[in-house]
Description:
Elements: H1 3-20, E1 31-32, E2 37-38, E3 43-45, E4 48-49, E5 54-55, E6 60-62, E7 64-66, E8 71-72, E9 77-78, E10 104-106, E11 111-112, E12 117-118, E13 123-124, E14 129-130, E15 135-136, E16 144-147, E17 152-156, H2 160-169, H3 176-184
Parallel strand pairs: 1-4, 2-5, 3-6, 4-7, 5-8, 6-9, 7-10, 8-11, 9-12, 10-13, 11-14, 12-15, 14-16
Antiparallel strand pairs: 16-17
The structure holds coenzyme A.
Amino acid sequence: MSGSVRNVLAELYFKTLRIARQPAYALRGTRVALSSRIEGGCVLVRSCVGRYTYLGAGVYLHTTTIGNYCSVAAGARIGGMEHSWWWGSTSHRISPHNSDGKPTLIEDDVWIGSNALIRQGLHIGRGAVIGAGAVVLRNVPPYTIVAGVPARPIRKRFPDEIAERVVASRFWERRPREARALLEGITFPPRPEDPDR
Ligand SMILES: CC(C)(COP(=O)(O)OP(=O)(O)OC[C@H]1O[C@@H](n2cnc3c(N)ncnc32)[C@H](O)[C@@H]1OP(=O)(O)O)[C@@H](O)C(=O)NCCC(=O)NCCS
């Protein structure tokens, strides 16, 4: 067996182990691509995780589809129950009106900061960034950075013409080496200066 085939098989074996060692209660009805990485303590309910995505420790996903090349920092919560505050009780033991069924969509290459909360039913556009601790109550357009409670846009990641070139590359459909090469063909503006950093 050639070295590269052996490497691919070894990687597959370790990725399978990594997903298989999650306790069953933590992966209820969820599909995770083998190339994605899940740290300990995640709880994933009726969700779907794309390729090359990273979920930090203690991430909670409920009825969420998350794309390729996303980075979700520790403690982020996406989707989950909305309790019936307008009815006689909010308790899941009594209320027939609680809802956890609205699907949430996180497109490719989204970065979600530590302990952010994204309410169920929202659509987070490709390439968006969610600041640490944000509470996201509205859809987020592609390539937009939002932060705060409630989350508000703070800036665009790049000028629109550059975002268009990134989108045209469709790098998120490629393997990492090819994806990086596609992005290296685009000139990005330098990171804005921050005098305090
Ligand atoms: C959202 C984020 C990416 C923005 O980074 P940035 O563009 O360098 O932001 P800046 O420091 O220039 O801040 C821009 C403004 O947004 C505010 N802001 C930035 N991050 C914020 C946050 N998480 N919550 C609330 N406000 C925030 C700043 O106070 C500043 O406001 P001002 O213009 O009124 O002073 C970054 O702050 C962040 O939250 N990163 C996540 C870090 C993390 O969770 N890492 C875990 C490992 S993956």
